[in-house]
Amino acid sequence: MSKGLKRKAERLSKLLEKLVSESGKGVLIVVEGQNDVRALRKLAIEGGVISTKTSGKSFLDILAEIEGQKVHEVILLLDFDRRGVEWTRRLKQHLEKTRIKPNLSFWSELHSLVGRDVKDLEGLPAYFETLKKKTSQPTESQSSKV
Questions:
Q1: What DSSP assignment string belongs to 18-76?
Q2: Domain 3-133 carries which CATH code?
Q3: pLDDT, tens digit (0-9, with 9 covering 90-100), for 40-79
Q4: pLDDT at 136
Q5: Residue 98: helix, strand or coil by DSSP?
Q6: Which residues is 101 bridged to in the sheet?
Q7: Closest to 54 (Cα-Cα) out of 43, 45, 66
Q8: What is the C-alpha to C-alpha distance for residues 80 and 86, in angstroms, rounded to an integer?
Q9: How distant is the alpha carbon of residue 137 from its chain centre?
Q10: Contact assessment for residue 78 and residue 35, using Cβ atoms and an 8 Å cutoff
């Protein structure tokens, strides 16, 4: 196992802990679909989550729903594909106009950590589990000493 893989697992774990903490403080999270909501729940994120692809909501419906939550900050965690990037950009612009802080730090860090391996949020729990398994297995030199 490489040190880089272990470092990636540690960084991802810390990032997810911070996300759980922010969600616990009441910061709203915006994702694309219901599978993304389920993925966050698997990662122990229990706070408020809004899905942008639910029941045919328009962009304006999503903005109204976010504004209706009376929050000061929103974490945008849409997918890393072209559509997700476009929605993230549009939401960021509109939220700033309504004086709601769009938090892109989690999205940016996740993208830099797993962007090549994971294209959407729904794949994150399985990826994280695989990473944990790979980093917890003893190397050949460690297992031969046992």
A1: HHHHHHHTT-EEEESSHHHHHHHHHTT--S-EEETTSTT--HHHHHHHHHHTT-SEEEE
A2: 3.40.1360.10
A3: 999 999 999 999 987 678 889 999 999 999 999 999 999 9
A4: 82
A5: coil
A6: 73
A7: 66
A8: 10
A9: 26
A10: no
Residue ranges per structural domain of the chain: 3-133
Helix and strand numbers (H, E) in the chain are 7, 4
Q: Would you say 105 and 143 are in contact if contact means Cβ atoms under 8 Å apart?
A: no
Which token pair is 89?
């950009």
Residue that has been written with the tokens 């849409």 in this structure: 78
Q: What is this structure's pTM?
A: 0.87
Please enumerate, as own/partner, the contacts of 63-71 that have beta carbons within 8 Å and a separation of 24 or more: 63/91, 63/94, 63/95, 63/98, 66/28, 66/30, 66/95, 66/100, 67/98, 67/100, 69/28, 71/26, 71/27, 71/28, 71/100
Instruction: Identify whether the C-beta of residue 91 lies closer than 8 Å to the C-beta of residue 62.
Output: yes
Contact 5, 133 (CB under 8 A): no
Pair of tokens at residue 142: 């460690």
- Which residue, among 38, 2, 14, has the nearest Cα to 125 in the 3D structure? 38
Residue from 92, 84, 41 nearest 66 by CA: 92
